[in-house]
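Example complex used in Figure S2.
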Amino acid sequence: MPTTRNKLYTLFLLLTALFSAPYTLEAKESEASGDLKAEIKAYISHHLQDAYDFSLFSYTNESGKHIYVGIPLPVILWDNGLHVFSSSKLHHGEAVVQSGAYHYKLDHSKIYRTDAAGTINYDESHHATNVAPLDFSITKGVASMLLIAFLMFFLFKGLAKTYAVNGGVPAGIGRFFEPIVLYIRDDIARPNIGEKKYGKYMSFLLTVFFFIWFLNMLGLTPLGVNVTGNIAVTFGLALLTFMITNFTGTKDYWLHIFDPLGASMKWYAKVPLYIILIPIEVLGIFIKPFSLLIRLYANMQAGHIVMMSLIGLMFIFKSWLGSPLSFGLAFAISIIELLVALLQAYIFTMLSALYFGFAAEEHEHH
Amino acid sequence: MEKLIGEFSLGLFFWQSLIFIGLFFLLKKFAWKPILDAVNERETSIKDALASAEAARNEMESLQSDNQRILKEARAEKEALLKEARATRSELINGAKEEAQVEAQKILAQAQDAIQNEKRAAVNELKEQVGSIAMEIAEKVLQKELESNDKQLQLVEQLLKDTNLK
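Predicted assembly (532 residues):
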């Protein structure tokens, strides 16, 4: 498995390198389109971050004004009391919102407390020094997750129902999802966790697999959401894997960490080794889920950057040759992204199962 | 790294955890458990059906081998019976043959006896007839010979001459 993953990484890196090369080359040639490039760059970095409203698209009208089309979402702040208002009031950072005794303004995709005039002070490294309230807003990402959660709930509840109605045989879309559920059970959970204990981890593995996969797929739609490419989301998912791994860890799991050599050596021989070994093993507990969160985040983030750069390239080329070419590249990349969406969900699930397998291990005492 | 931490949104993390954990428990109760149970049930029922089919096949096989055995036995019995019958038949035939031979011998002997007796009787009768014919002829010859007195006297003389008185 790791070899195919590495191969895919290599492929991915190669493609990224290949496609970014003409981009930079072109960038040097056309100084005139500097404005456009800056705009595309800003657009990409804006897209990669979470947003306070569900923007569908934006355009500049004749009078040079930016018009945003989208669905406003609720902004929920905790700043000495609860502040709730619609994100449409923020006007994409152009307006100051008064809520209770405070004023708030959006700056670089973050809400800060300001004075009535909306002044934002910056330090030398261009970081806002204003107070940032605790932010529990229903952002675009949260809304997407809610959407996927509802979709998953009704989809799989429906699937469960067809079993009851249809006498243990799935019907409709269940025929597509049942093999995937069985694949996760038979090829991910069973071999990694073991026949005896896999059952109690199944719900998590199934939920996490479909959650990541569906969110990855949603990220490929023109809605332009980037949930699994957000570090907070992948952190939350990896944290659950971490907690489940360690809370269900058996005696053997902890013994493996704190006494990896076991009875094969005398205690005085083990002491100098353990000064090095135990910190490594303890570090490993944290590194494993950390690798999960970085892997998913980086893969999805990179995919979105490549996709959007290639789409942006069409507007930079503006020629009969260049634009179709970059369209073709974007099309090819989106097909690869379709695979990556599934692959990353698979890898996350697979590795989680592997870690659960470590935690659940119980071997013969030798 | 600093950029990553800067990007980290506590609110998003909070909502993500909430949504995911909520989804996890809901799906566990309403979806995964019924789905996996149904699948497991189906698998066990398939396994059971296969096992019972196997058992039925084995039973069939044993029945078939039983049948084969019974058939073999029956055939062997038939053979034995036939053999016995054949032996009895030849025994019967042989016995009858012997008996017939003895009977025939007996009849033959009786016939021979009868023939012998008949022959003897016939010989006796022939002897008697030959004797009486001879007597008649002798009588006739004598009558003819001794018709005259001379001849009678001659004979007496002859006889007297042959007979010497002692």
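The mean pLDDT of chain B is 89. Residues 40 and 46 of chain B are 10 Å apart (CA to CA).
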